[in-house]
Specification:
It is a single chain. This protein has 22 helices and 30 strands. With 716 residues, it is an alpha/beta fold. The protein has four domains: 279 residues, Rossmann fold; 151 residues, 3-Layer(aba) Sandwich (Rossmann fold), CATH 3.40.50; 73 residues, Dna Ligase, domain 1 (2-Layer Sandwich), CATH 3.30.1490.20; 113 residues, 2-Layer Sandwich (D-amino Acid Aminotransferase, Chain A, domain 1), CATH 3.30.470.20. Helix 6 runs parallel beside helix 7, helix 14 packs parallel to helix 16 and helix 21 crosses helix 22. The two termini are 13 Å apart.
Length: 716
């Protein structure tokens, strides 16, 4: 199948329960995120061991709940009475952390069930992440946990932390820091070690956290369930995700919808953008990264701000938190940024980065320049308003406020030079004191290393960035439209009774399915081998019919521009002979005769059932160049007309029929409807289709025509 999709493998997922399971404990969220009593199974009194860390961390960071060390070989741990088993603890326990050898984990889990502990985190590794024997060990463990009604975080989880309560149920060395900063950010990570790195980086910049959760192998409790719990967590306002794959996407989708409705931004960093990154993420926890364009479509569908740089993951937080209600609801032509600076070179680095992210630094229009002249400030009509040595602090503040009220820009960027480092009061004061409306973002890039200024801006909820790239990326992620999807089709599509239930469809059968959806296809006839009579007007196209030959041009299975019966009679045997030579063994059912259609341009419509995110639809440049040109738009299917029109604008090739340099125009409303109709493949009950393609789709002045079609069913 051609297009932007890459091949994927089935994910190694064994989620035994979900948040709607009858086995789910009614206090699941509290036991997971804010337990009042914790059992540490395998706790050590040797301060140098990892298994001593959770106890030390909770003592160090002021946990007020009860801690029960479990160690059959010790009577006390750091002065606290130790118990041989959790069953010997005389009080209720909310959460247990298992830190013992893998051969004893199942027995410990059985004890936790007897004690009625609702949530168990398993730090122990050697399970699904190593494949083979470990995977089978994980299957048995999770099957037993489901029988017992115990929820499992992990295995191979580095633990959880509640910074507000000091409940550090984690072995992560990052919690050795002397002081944790309580905040409103919660982090869910599929990498335990990266969770520590992110916390360290964020803490050095003054960001505070509410909760952190390492899911490990994510065998039972999933990212989706945790996000769902965080939506209801009063201390969490922003949710960060560090992901290697997506598991249990239905649960995650429900949680992301709830987060959006609750006004809690979700920001994600996901590995797997490259082939090497994909391979590394698979080897780490037995995960698959999935197809990256499909992942992007998934995040866009649910309003997740995906970032590519680790710095941006937390630097974007003040922007997302303060202005979440101001994110665009419909696709536009790219964000327009009014840039104001006291350092020309620093501003140039940010504006240069804008070009990579479909962001434009816009010059102030003449009426605004006249308006500011009347307020005592002379401006030039340039993409960056440079006030170096030309304005007082009061004028700077006034200009900021006027820009934040202006209707010709979507956000305001302030680029601050050396004064941020040496005169923070002078540079930062106008930014802090300026009146800032809730619907127009203000962001700041500090050109020098200016930690004090960064912290001060952060304290006042202003997004400040250390690099021009992260600043530009944050604006791009923020301004990606959030659609409400109210115009998506929902009516089921009936599978035509005359079509096969398995295998590849022939082109004639595929065209029949597309016609059922409402898509116009080129007039065609099928002929058995030896037949040459047809009733189509010349010129025509001749094609081989074979379920085993998907790309007919690759084996010489297409002849175009046949203009007479004589040419046709000569072309049929020549075509069949060449196909049999280049594709020996492929069964041939006959030939297809198709009326030649005219076109303005060729596009491709593609459909794929992604193993992680489900049905996706793509629009791209068409013909044989579809594989070579990275010019496409992708969405989760089905889509509505608003998304269809957005996709048309995203594909640069369509500019040729949208008024480019006086070229003939096409009716994009007709194309948009064809996109919507094609996406309805996702509404066939049972979703029998794994892949489908119309390539090329001829775009005409007032119509579209599918001139070649492919459909693969799941068991093909």
């Amino acid at each position: 199948m051609r297009g932007p999709w890459a091949a994927s493998s089935p994910s190694l997922i064994f989620s035994m329960q979900d948040s709607s399971s009858p086995n789910a404990h009614p206090d699941f969220a509290r036991a997971l995120l804010a337990p009042r009593s914790v059992a540490l199974i395998g706790a050590s009194s040797n301060a140098k061991k990892n298994t001593a860390r959770p106890f030390r961390f909770m003592r160090k960071h002021g946990f007020k709940g009860r801690i029960f060390p479990i160690n059959a070989g010790a009577s006390e741990i750091f002065g606290e009475k130790a118990f041989p088993s959790v069953c010997d603890v005389p009080e209720p326990i909310d959460h247990a952390l298992i830190m013992i050898s893998r051969d004893h984990v199942l027995a410990a889990l059985e004890d936790c069930a007897r004690k009625k502990i609702p949530v168990v985190t398993i730090y122990t590794d050697g399970f699904g992440e190593i494949g083979g024997e470990g995977l089978e060990r994980q299957r048995k463990l999770l099957a037993r946990a489901a029988e017992l009604g115990v929820r499992v975080l992990g295995p191979n989880s580095i633990g959880t932390a509640n910074v507000h309560t000091g409940g550090i149920i984690s072995v992560n060395a990052v919690f050795e820091m002397d002081e944790l900063i309580p905040g409103d950010i919660s982090l869910v990570s599929q990498s335990g070690s990266m969770m520590g790195s992110l916390l360290s980086r964020a803490a050095s910049r003054g960001f505070g956290f509410a909760k952190t959760i390492s899911v490990g192998n994510e065998s039972d409790i999933t990212v989706g369930e945790i996000v769902d719990a965080l939506v209801d967590d009063e201390q969490t306002r922003v949710i960060l995700l560090f992901l290697e794959t997506l598991r249990d996407t239905p649960a995650l989708s429900r949680a992301l919808d709830r987060a959006r409705l609750a006004g809690k931004p979700v920001i994600a960093y996901k590995l797997g953008r490259s082939k090497q990154g994909d391979a590394l993420s698979q080897s780490h926890t037995g995960a698959i990264a999935g197809d990256d364009p499909a992942i992007n479509a998934y995040f866009d569908r649910y309003g997740v701000m995906r970032v590519q740089m680790l710095e941006t993951l937390f630097e974007i937080v003040p922007l997302a938190r303060r202005y979440s209600a101001a994110r665009p609801k419909q696709a536009g032509s790219g964000a327009r940024i009014a840039a104001i600076t006291t350092t020309g070179g620093g501003a140039a680095t940010v504006v240069d980065s804008f070009g990579m992210f479909d962001i434009e630094a816009v010059a102030p229009p003449t009426p605004f320049i006249e308006h500011m002249k009347g307020r005592g400030l002379a401006l030039r009509q340039t993409p960056v308003i440079d006030l170096t040595l030309a304005a007082t602090s009061e004028q700077y503040k006034d200009l900021l406020e006027q820009l934040l009220k202006a209707d010709w820009c979507d956000a305001v960027l302030s680029v601050v030079g050396s004064s941020a480092q040496f005169h923070p009061d002078l540079a930062i004061k106008p930014l802090v004191e300026a009146e800032k409306p809730a619907d127009k973002p203000l962001v700041v890039f500090l050109a020098p290393e200016a930690s004090a200024s960064l912290v001060r801006l952060q304290e006042h909820g202003i997004a400040a960035f250390r690099s021009p790239e992260s600043c530009a990326e944050a604006l791009r992620a923020f301004f990606k439209p959030v659609s409400d999807h109210r115009d998506e089709p929902t009516e089921p599509v009936v599978w035509p009774a005359d079509l096969p239930a398995h295998g590849n469809l022939t082109e004639l059968e595929a065209n029949g399915l597309f016609t059922t959806l409402g898509i116009r296809t080129a007039d065609s006839r099928s002929l058995l081998e030896g037949e040459t009579a047809h009733d189509l007007p010349y010129p025509v196209v001749l094609k081989v019919i074979s379920r085993d030959i998907i790309h007919k041009t690759d084996v010489g299975g297409v002849r175009v521009g046949i203009r007479s019966d004589e040419e046709f009679r000569e072309a049929v045997p020549a075509l069949l002979a060449e196909v049999r030579q280049r594709a020996p063994g492929a069964p041939i059912e006959g030939v297809l005769v198709q009326r030649m259609e005219h076109r303005l341009i060729e596009l491709m419509l593609g459909y794929r059932h992604d193993p992680l995110v489900g049905p996706t639809v793509v629009l791209s440049a068409g013909g044989i160049t579809a594989e070579l040109m990275p010019d496409y738009a992708i969405r989760l299917a089905p889509i509505g007309l608003s998304d269809a029109h957005a996709m048309i604008e995203e594909v640069q090739t369509t500019r040729l029929v949208r008024g480019f340099r006086g070229l003939p125009r096409a009716d994009c409303d007709v194309l948009a409807q064809a996109l919507v109709d094609f996406s309805r493949l996702a509404l066939i009950p049972g979703q029998p289709i794994s892949e489908a393609e119309i390539n090329p789709l001829f775009i005409q002045e007032d119509a579209v025509a599918a001139v070649d079609g492919v459909v693969r069913l799941h068991d093909a």
